[in-house]
Specification:
alpha+beta; five-stranded antiparallel β-sheet
Length: 235
Amino acid sequence: MPRFPAGFELAEALTAAARELHGTGTPDDTMHTAVTLAVRLLPDAEHADISEIQRGGRLRSLAWTDETVRFAAEPRQGGHTPHPDWERLWTTPVVRTDDSEADGGGNVLSGLGLRSALSLRLRADRRRLTVLTAYARKPQAFDEDATRIGRLFTAHVSLALDSATVREQLTEAMRTRDLIGQATGILMERLDIDAAGAFDSLVKASQRENVKLRDLARRIVDANSGAGGRGVTER
């Protein structure tokens, strides 16, 4: 991928990337699209992944372009991050590793032949960070231009990820509403009570059995579709 000059070429590439990101259906789809686009957009990038880092250094991989960087991001000894520099992302939005073999190497990146890394913060709260990282096999692969492009790109990724998350939450809310409505209808018929009484019975059973209302509703609906099943204890 050529280096983008300041101007229309970069703007057009980012616009196309934004369209592709916003066309995804779920947060998982958005993240997998983002790592693929990162390799296409960032000069000299060969691999990319997105990881979630928790306070204390524990992390999990969320999306990756290939198995090489999946293993680069997976926790090692004691489940802690193999990238000490990532701790800096709690206080700065970008961390750049110019050469993983500096100071003798011996770390996970150098062991995988990955000499350069550009880590960009996507999301942050008090407990966790979501980070997109691009990797290259040559040292000092990511300069200020790559960093600038990376920050512009991750701004689009963050917006698309927020949008996909909201859509997923709204979809789940609609599904939950429908599920609770079905369970209420089943209880109305089974207990010969009105809608308010059936919903109250569902809420009380949820509290009594320490089960989320949505999960209890699903259990009732599933049990009702089976042969002679019962989804809630009548007390």
